[in-house]
Write a structure and sequence with these properties.
Chain lengths: 133, 81, 133, 81
């Protein structure tokens, strides 16, 4: 299963386009579950109104660390596809900064893998936020 | 020997620079380098316990033995998403 | 929070169109997380190849039971919006039968609520499957 | 008194009908009705423990007291999704 897992990572300054991402999804006949997460910049951080978040990445290391997480996921769950888009640079409030999609045979593993990936990302992937008033 | 040190995010603000070269003795560890950097940039001391250390694209601990030409990165806890 | 939760339930024989559903999403400035689930008919059920699943609903009761679940969700989590589409009738393999979307301030509650809703649906909402060879 | 009984999914196949009217005594419970239906449709007996009972759009237990005109539904475990 591991070597066949489709991994697609995009770290980009461009807007995240969910419609395009959905249009390019492929799913084989044994797959029954797609879990997606969209993280959106909120207008309030720590009780204070903001206008945007500026995301900074140590990009080469971020890509490497994401790939290590993907490899670990392939060992833990029967995932057919993991796709992740992280926006960097200035992201205005109400705009998405993160999109994750997991395709698996059953829903339990898709939910588990999606949550694990986001939790681990926030632990090891070198991306930082700076709020803009 | 010479290593290159990169500071990211808040650490770039604390030190006022994104990249410096640092001279070390052969066999020096990442911990020795970190101490040397805190001596040069005292504002790093407050973040001592929350400092993440990487060589190249891998996390390393303070006992990691550096080699000439290593690319070291120091940064605060990550917060993507 | 409870009375303001947006609830949208669709039980339909029509194809589920994710793109349209995404285009009609609304999200206020305090919201940071969107979790979506898509359940797709697999080509194999209990080890045997199938061509479709025929979904039957006791529709009036299904709507009522879904609404009870939505009310319970509004009490448990700070949800701004829950939308659910369940297809009934014949759904071919590789086509979606269920789409769920939860919008909340933070991701933890969106994942928890989405999984809870699907688990509870499979316990109390009167919809049944019949495989078609 | 008279109640209407609806069978869904597999139960419609077991009984061979989707809907019947059933005569009961005043004060009879859902359990009495269920027993009466299992006597009439013996194939329902194998599903006895997995039978879900509803009156109108609400689940009810066997001790629920029926009233004239109630719409009762019997069905196997649900499996949406």
């Amino acid at each position: 299963m591991e070597c066949r897992m489709k991994k697609q990572l995009t770290i980009t300054t461009e807007t995240i386009n969910e419609t395009d991402l959905i249009a390019t999804r492929t799913m084989s006949v044994g797959m029954g579950a797609v879990v997606s997460f969209l993280g959106v910049v909120r207008g309030i951080e720590e009780g204070k109104a903001i206008s945007a978040i500026d995301y900074e990445a140590f990009e080469k290391m971020a890509q490497h660390q994401f790939n290590l997480l993907f490899e670990e996921m392939a060992k833990r769950w029967p995932i057919e596809s993991v796709r992740l888009v992280h926006r960097i640079g200035v992201v205005k409030i109400n705009e998405p900064s993160l999109w994750v999609e997991i395709v698996t045979p059953h829903r339990g593993e898709a939910f588990a893998a999606c949550q694990w990936l986001i939790d681990e990302m926030k632990r090891v992937v070198p991306i930082w936020k700076k709020t803009i008033d | 020997m010479l290593v290159t040190v990169h500071f990211y995010s808040y650490f770039r603000e604390l030190t006022g620079c994104g990249e410096i070269n640092e001279t070390l003795h052969s066999g020096d560890t990442l911990g020795v380098l970190h101490d040397q950097l805190m001596a040069r940039f005292p504002r790093l001391v407050t973040m001592r316990k929350s400092t993440l250390l990487a060589v190249g694209v891998e996390y390393q601990t303070r006992d990691y033995v550096l080699r000439d030409g290593d690319e070291v990165s120091l940064f605060p806890p990550v917060q993507g998403g």
